[in-house]
Amino acid sequence: MNVPIATPIPPLPAQPDGVPWPTEEWPEAQLGSKVNAERLDALMDHAFSDPAPDDMGETHAFLAVQSGQIVLERYWRTFTKADTYPSWSMAKSITQALVGILVREGKIDVHAPAAVPEWTENGGVRSHITLDQLLRMSSGLKFREDYVDGDASDVIEMLFGQGKHDVAAFAAAFPLEAAPDSHWSYSSGTSNLVARAAAIALGGKGDVFEAFMRKELFDPIGMRSPLPKFDDAGTFIGSSFCFCTARDFARFGLLYMRDGVWDGRRILPEGWVDYARTPTAVPPDEPLGYGAHWWLGLCGPGSFSANGYQGQYTILIPDLDLILVRHGDSLDEKGEKTKAWLAQVADCFRE
């Protein structure tokens, strides 16, 4: 798939010669001589202080991968590299990868109307909403994404209330609040519509879809720990639930850093990673940009990231060939202090 790119984006680096792919074990190396190690140590000591710092809350795991090798890894208290950590909305980027594999296989077209059975009849304008518009959070569907005020939260009702048995059907019932492609609004509901559309394209849900995830995405790149969650209808809860180790989230990041190719095998179709990191035409009303189920610019121009509630991050910084993975329990919903800390960590590799 060749995806037209609307704005210039930095090239993605190749795996350095002589560095093995971490399909089985991660290669490890020392921090580079250009890294500000003293400042980096201070930032790590702050994040991993015990008791946890007031500004960031708990940081349970952190690792940095540069040039395909782990150069820094740290865990808090009893947390270890063998533990699985919640993805929360980092699962959205995994969902985007699964759609990409179906694009590679010719089973789905992101620019065609999304497969939403509830909209086939009497869906009105909604029946014309494309998968691309869902991936870019610009569908125009009404949905309240609030993890603090339960009374005003559609996402809490979807994941833990009346919608939990069939998350996609719950999301499909929402009306339009704006014309498609005229308004950006972050919505976990649309991600679950995407996940179900992927299952429809595959022709299987539940165990069949999980087997597809493992065969086509997780196993080829050495991700052995993923624990994806499904609702009672058999839909992967692609908005929120895929537990992994920090090292496996880093493997997922490396797949995108290497343009969807792993050890000579193309996992994602050509152009899919660039599609993910191309800014949507309707930008968010906040500092970060948004591509197709990936956030943009958290650690400087050209960076893109999978971000999850309470401070889960897998950040790719192509110009440094650097991947940062952080798991924890941040205190504020949007994690602004944690984002600022991550940006400072990235700056240490620029100095």
Oligomeric state of shown chains: single chain
Helicity, as a percent range: 25-40%
Q: Determine Rg (CA atoms, Å).
A: 19 Å
Name the strands of the widest sheet in spatial order. Answer: 2-1-11-10-9-8-7
Q: Approximately what portion of the residues adopt beta-strand conformation?
A: 5-15%
Sketch the major β-sheet.
Answer: 7 strands, antiparallel
Low-confidence segments, given as residue ranges, are 1-6
- What order do the helices and strands follow? HEEHHHHHHEEHEEHEEEEEH
Distance between the termini: 37 Å
Count, helices: 10
Structural class: alpha+beta
* Relevant CATH superfamily: DD-peptidase/beta-lactamase superfamily
CATH architecture: 3-Layer(aba) Sandwich
DSSP summary, beta strand count: 11
Categorize the overall geometry. globular
- Assign the CATH topology: Beta-lactamase
Task: Explain briefly what this protein structure is.
By secondary structure, this protein is α+β, with helices and mostly antiparallel strands. Helices cover 29% and strands 13% of the residues. The strands form three sheets. Strands 2-1-11-10-9-8-7 form a seven-stranded antiparallel beta sheet. The chain has a two-stranded antiparallel ribbon with strand order 3-4.
